[in-house]
Amino acid sequence: MGEKYLLVDGHAHLNELSDLSESIREAKGAGVGGIIAVGMDIESNKKILQTAEANSQFVYPALGYHPWVIREEEIEANLSFIRDHAEEGVALGEIGLDYKVKVKKELQWKVFGELLGIALESDKPVVVHCRYSHRRAFDMVKERKIERAVFHWYSGPLRLLDEILEAGYLISATPASAYSPPHREAIRRAPIESILLETDTPVSYQGRESRPKDVRVTLEEVSRLKGLDPSVVSRQTTENASRFFKVRF
After folding, report:
1. How far apart are CA 40 and CA 47, in angstroms?
2. Where are the domains of the chain?
3. CATH of 7-245, one of 3.90.79.10, 3.40.225.10, 3.20.20.140, 1.20.140.10
4. What number of other Cβ atoms are within 10 A of residue 6's Cβ?
């Protein structure tokens, strides 16, 4: 696929890259028009705010507190930082629940609930991590009457996916749509108007570490799964991202 399409990488951990400048340059060369840089804790949030400032109108920060890194003694500092800087970001993320990680569920629920409250106060959408916790994460988002949510790398039950879509929420597609059966099924099921493209950089897919330019891989796979021309998928998913993050890419 040699053509250039305007693409948005809706989820990348840019703070983890040692080749950040090169990765941004390669992304621009591949037709990427914007990257949503997601945070996981205070340090990563600080880094992505700096990266966004240095790459204005290309990198957009989403401040997050990931369930993997929740420690009871650090919760208030992390929440305070996000409260203080929420207006500087385009979303809150990556936030959510993870029932595979060894962090008490009650602690995860408390933090996620607080973060959803901040999202409501600041009128920001949420980027939701929900590994093995799809139902509880969705219920919490819906109960809080959050208007804009994307369920990152959705690989949960299709019955729940129908409820997510009915509530007006989105799911995101990653390069794993090339080989992960539950993720592929979700992408097939969701209308293109409800999908964002992403890479989850620098996650490795089949042994290869990803970069934002690899959102083209996601585009190819989503196009194949949906039976749509890549130009249609790129146009619609970029429009979805613009509407969701309130950014003109």
Report:
1. 11
2. 7-245
3. 3.20.20.140
4. 15
What is the distance between the alpha carbons of residues 20 and 31, in angstroms, rounded to a whole number? Answer: 17
Q: Which letter, b or e, does each residue of 59-78 get, where b requires 16 or more Cβ atoms within 10 Å of its Cβ? A: bbbbbbbbbbbbeeeeeeeb
Q: How many CA atoms lie within 13 A of 184 on its CB side?
A: 11
Q: Residues 130, 105, 122, 64: is their CA dihedral positive or negative?
A: negative
For residue 75, CA distances in Å to 100, 103, 114, 121 come to: 20, 12, 10, 19
Stated pTM of the model? 0.97
Q: Tell me, what DSSP letter sits at residue 163?
A: H
Tokens 């891989």 belong to 217
What pLDDT digit, counting tens, does each position of 64-117 carry? Answer: 999 999 999 999 999 999 999 999 999 999 999 999 999 999 999 999 999 999
Distance from C-alpha of 162 to C-alpha of 185, rounded to nearest angstrom: 12
